[in-house]
Amino acid sequence: MPLTITRASDPARGQYSLEIEEIDPVTPASRLLWHIAQLPGVTVLAKKSWALTDDFEAYFTYKGQMFCLQTPFVNACLVMRAPGDPLIFQELEDHISQYRVPSTLVSMLAMLRFFVLPSNPKPELWPH
After folding, report:
1. Domains of the chain by residue range
2. What distance in Å separates the CA atoms of residue 12 and residue 17, rounded to the nearest whole number?
3. pLDDT digit string (tens) for 39-80?
4. What is the pLDDT of residue 128?
5. Which domain of life is it from (predicted)?
6. Strand pairing partners for 62?
7. Which has the higher per-residue pLDDT, 125 or 66?
8. Closest to 73 measured CA to CA, from 22, 6, 125
9. Is the pLDDT score of 124 beyond 70?
């Protein structure tokens, strides 16, 4: 089942974001982060989430741009740190649109892989 993705961007300000409709009640954000991490050049830096809640926040870079994947509400939200490059954002959006719900094994591997990450990226990685 393909994802329902809504772009909510302001290119004039270099701000790019996607709202990604929840696709599965079991670890949806970790599974989506696993899919994103399969894109060559993606480096997952940090992740924080709490068991038995929908709270999730992960930081990663792709081609020198910082992104945050979070679940501020029910759906996932992907935000590119401004100023964003529209071509890089489009590459990532295209990759996300190819997401398919993975197996239970991949879901468990995703939770384990990201469990050991720090909660926040190192301060020097944040744009100034």
Report:
1. 5-108
2. 13
3. 999 999 998 876 656 678 899 999 989 999 988 766 788 888
4. 45
5. Bacteria
6. 42, 65
7. 66
8. 22
9. no
Q: Tell me the residue type at 65.
A: Q
Distance CA 86, CA 106 (A): 30
Q: Which fold has domain 5-108?
A: TATA-Binding Protein (3.30.310)
**Which amino acid, residue 1?**
M
Torsion of CA 114, 117, 118, 122, to 10 degrees: -110
Secondary structure class of 79 (helix, strand, coil): strand
Q: Amino acid letter at 102?
A: P
Return the DSSP state at 81. P
Going by C-alpha positions, the residue among 50, 40, 24 that lies closest to residue 106 is: 24
**In the numeric block, which tokens belong to residue 101?**
């719900």
> Tokens standing for 10?
């302001």
H or E segment to which residue 48 belongs: strand 42-49
